[in-house]
Write a structure and sequence with these properties.
Nuclear Transport Factor 2, Chain: A, alpha+beta, flat
Length: 113
């Protein structure tokens, strides 16, 4: 029962997107700290030849608030490239070079790792 309550508390909002043989789930979840994040799940129905049953193959990405803008910018750039053939300027993707995952400047030694 506790697991069900925790799961209900964690899930805030969900948006399924059906796309051919795949379904994508965009789920907003909440950590105990109150911070929200997104999980993007690709779900694809598969058939297991050995036991003759269907199952769902799933792949997940966890996207945290501090990465939303960078992720959206990268996704927009590659979608735009597919649609138009135009590459985004390289500097757009290197604006965060020299910063660690927490947004603070890295020294030269750290960036060489």
């Amino acid at each position: 029962m506790e697991e069900f309550d925790r799961k209900e508390r964690d899930e805030i909002y969900s948006r399924p997107v059906r796309a051919g043989k795949r379904t994508y789930f965009f789920d907003v979840k909440e950590m105990r700290s109150g911070e929200m994040y997104i999980t993007i799940t690709e779900s694809k129905k598969r058939f297991n030849e050995e036991n003759g049953k269907f199952f769902y193959e799933k792949h997940k990405i966890f996207l945290y608030k501090e990465d939303f803008d960078k992720f959206a910018k990268g996704l927009d750039a590659v979608v735009n490239f597919i649609r138009t053939g135009e590459k985004a300027p390289e500097e757009d993707f290197h604006e965060f070079a020299g910063q660690n995952e927490f947004g603070s400047e890295m020294n030269q030694e750290q960036s060489d790792l």
